[in-house]
Amino acid sequence: MMNSKVSRFFKPSISATVVLFLLATLFTNLGMWQTRRGEAKAATEQQFATAKTVLLKNAIAQQDRFAHIDVSGRYDTKRHILLDNQVWQGRAGVHVFTPFYTDDGTVILVNRGWLPLSADRRIMPAVPTPQQPTVLRGILNIFPVPGRILGSADTLASGKWPQLVTYLNHADISAALDTPLAEWVVQLSKSEQAGFGGRDWKPVFLTSSKHRAYAFQWFALAGISIVLWVFNGIRRSRESRTMRSEK
Predict the structure, then answer these.
(1) pLDDT tens-digit profile of 90-124?
(2) Whole-structure pTM over 0.85, yes or no?
(3) Dist CA 204 CA 85 (whole Å)
(4) Run of H or E including 221
(5) What are the sequence ranges of the domains in the chain?
(6) For a pLDDT cut of 70, what percent of the chain falls above it?
(7) Do 190 and 13 contact (CB within 8 A), yes or no?
(8) How far apart (Å, rounded) are the C-alpha atoms in residues 191 and 199?
(9) Which residues contact 84 (CB under 8 A, 6 or more apart)?
């Protein structure tokens, strides 16, 4: 009796039910995926915000990402790696990675920030570098991970510097420098004079709030799919009753 009453006022088509159910499932899964991504990004942001100052060797041994580094040593004044396709303030350029030799024997790449790149890519920008011993201050981070690797890694020549690369490959850089290289980088502090532009370092590219906003949009689309299914069932039921009354 109850089913007959429901079918009188609600009669969705089978095709609409299948399509809208699939859409609602898809949108819900995408919303859940974005929610999980947001939670992971929130944990990374929290780690970045609460990082402490740690000795470089200890930070590397503990894999303490985002640790604040304060270590004495000297820069390599000639051998710079320029990471291509870096945009800052709407301009294309490179991030400058320079080897730093600490007093305790660690060698690590330092991201010194952004420099513009000439339209003629055979012309490399000048990279002014302190020659005297200095104190390196910055944030320990993992090697930059490319979104997509197309083709093989750039071939580095040990006698040609600076060199332009499309992504960083630890083994190739270490071989070109002919020295064991830490599998981490230091992002130079914004207050340091040895750096360039674009040193407002962020822990993530897309923030947790962005992922939460995307999740809300997907869940909203799932809700709209359900509303359309209900609307379709009510409309078809009304049309069916109208046709019966006209006969």
Answers:
(1) 999 999 999 999 999 999 999 999 999 988 888 89
(2) no
(3) 18
(4) helix 208-246
(5) 25-50+204-247, 67-188
(6) 88
(7) no
(8) 9
(9) 94, 117, 164, 165, 166
